[in-house]
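Quick one:
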Amino acid sequence: MFGKRKTFAVNNTGTKIRAMLGHMDKEEFINIDLVNTVDLAERDFMQNMGGPEEVVTDEESFSAKEILSENGTGKTKESKGGASLLFETFKNVSERKLDLGLNIPSRFVKEVFIDRDFTSAKPKQKDKLVRQEINTRLERPVSSEHYDYIETAENKIIGFTYEGRPPFLNIYDKANELLNIKPKIKLLLPDEIALVNLIQYNYQPEPDEIIAIVHLDPEYSQLIITKGGDLLHVSHAINIPLKSPDLLNKISGRLLYEKDLNNIEDFSRIIVTGMGKQKEAEEFLTKKLSFDSPVEYLSFNEERFKINAEIENDIPELAIPAGILVTCLSEQKLHKNTIDLIPEYIKDRQTFFKLSWYNVSILALLFFTPLFLGYRYNNIKNQYMAAKEKYDDVEQQIEDIKYIQEERNQLLQEIEQTSLELEKVREMSKGNYQLSKSLNKIKQVMDEMGGFWLENLNFDREKISLSGYTIYRNRPPRFVANFPDAKLEKITRSEIRGNPVYRFQIVINQVFEDQEVYNPQVD
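Output:
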């Protein structure tokens, strides 16, 4: 009997290659058989995007079998090239039947958010409309093999596009002839989709359950919101390095902003993935956030995964390769969140490799010349029909140019009008937050002390003036002492209905010692 086909998921961050080998057990558990991490310098990673790769030994070139075997003795140059890094990643993998799932790092992916409902359109018509919308937004034609899209939980569209060739494919192509195994590239997936599919599979959320994913990597962080396990919203990447002291404040502000923007009453939970443990993100967000959503690091559900206890502490950092693995092994269940960004040349080449395993059968078929000629005829006919379809599509696009230009001009006018209205709102709201925070502090102090009656209150950006009455002579000085810069300008004795009272005038120049309380971090 043939063994189960396994999947090797590879996450390339730019500073690390994280890989995970696994297979599905009776369609209930995902068994993680191997986890491998290779560190690489950013400079070396970018060099691996182009230029020749050289792998050397003491005397002569060595075989892929020697490189990939556990006891291999192959050596590489001190500065490892892309091929060497690939060998390092695959070195403990011996399976012949192997699917390969890859990520496209977020720095290479462009998201296009389309706030339109295409549910009433037929599939081909919807694909055409979405393609036109993406081309218009990016102001350039996008190749069909360089984009795909998904529908969110609210029937909106998020398109994912990229240019050029993904980094890992460059390295893979250079080392392909030397590899002892020939895996089939099954997925090429953006980080965001891998994370969404992992959360859906691992947590099995209820239909109305809203989960926020906070992912931290060395050079950027990401906030992704899911509803019922499906993608709801992808926030713009936070391009702040992991080592920055402002990163967690920025993330907490972004969570508050996206919560208000998407009219979310509260998150069911907040899952921290990536390198959040290094920043103690769970502890910080739990203390910082004002709402009651539980914050936790990613952990694998024992009913969904079987893992080695040695990797338990590293699970958050393995989120993306785990998400790729889940998507490969549960493709039918996660069809809504599975997109295809594999270039056509890879698909064609893999089809060729598959046929090459049956070269004996192919040689036999060569004797049946009429069948072969029929195949060639159908193939050429299909190519002709495909070319004609592309020609018709171009003609249709030419017809639509005028319509698209009018739509674009209308959108630009709407954007300009919206910007003017937004500027008006910003102008009207200046000082509102500062006044609210200041009055809350003043009210809190007065409530704690008691015995105050305000007669008048004036506010501007520089100071707050108060006047009123108290029945206790010592209360105004004690009130002033609660502020870093306040002054009791006047206190006089008078009578109201025969009872002695004290009229006071107070000027507060500074309500809080730290002025940053007036500046919540929100994009």
